[in-house]
Backbone:
């Protein structure tokens, strides 16, 4: 009887969240991904690149979400120094960049920084949503690129992916 109840509960829980668990064991993190996206590992210099499926409601609203993972060196071992280091790298390639919002948040119980910014790389303008955190001796950077004036529903989907981030506690 307990087995049937447990199986029923697991089935019910599975029906309430249709997101798939993605685990990256070598880099020590996991994410929950909706069916509306596809994932590529070790793509374009990023550990993971997540893009909307062509037939999804996100198509045209989200360009990509990348996850970059770096060993935290002594010069970038604090969250502030890591985020400044990563921002300088991004701004180096941008024709224009303006931070429109910055806040401290928690991801997987770790302090993190969440930024929104408008950037221009060459002729392409984008709105970026960035998250920076240090966990387990690694620096994690989440970069979501949207067309200008990002659709709030697309930002909400990306936020749900990023806030599903899980890493072992130090």
Residues:
């Amino acid at each position: 009887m307990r087995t049937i109840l447990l199986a029923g509960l697991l089935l019910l829980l599975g029906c309430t969240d249709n997101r798939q668990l993605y685990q990256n064991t070598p880099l020590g993190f996991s994410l929950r991904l909706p069916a509306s996206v596809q994932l590529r590992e070790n793509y374009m210099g990023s550990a993971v690149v997540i893009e909307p499926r062509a037939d999804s409601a996100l198509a045209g609203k989200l360009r990509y979400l990348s996850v970059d993972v770096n060993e935290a060196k002594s010069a970038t071992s604090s969250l502030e120094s890591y985020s400044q280091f990563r921002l300088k790298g991004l701004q180096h390639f941008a024709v224009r960049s303006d931070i429109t919002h910055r806040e401290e948040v928690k991801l997987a119980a770790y302090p993190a920084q969440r930024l929104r910014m408008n950037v221009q790389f060459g002729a392409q303008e984008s709105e970026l949503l960035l998250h920076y955190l240090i966990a387990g001796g690694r620096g994690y950077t989440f970069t979501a690129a949207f067309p200008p004036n990002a659709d709030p529903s697309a930002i909400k989907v990306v936020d749900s992916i990023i806030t599903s981030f899980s890493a072992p506690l130090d």
About this structure: DSSP finds three helices and nine strands in the chain. Helices lie at 2-16, 79-93, 152-163.
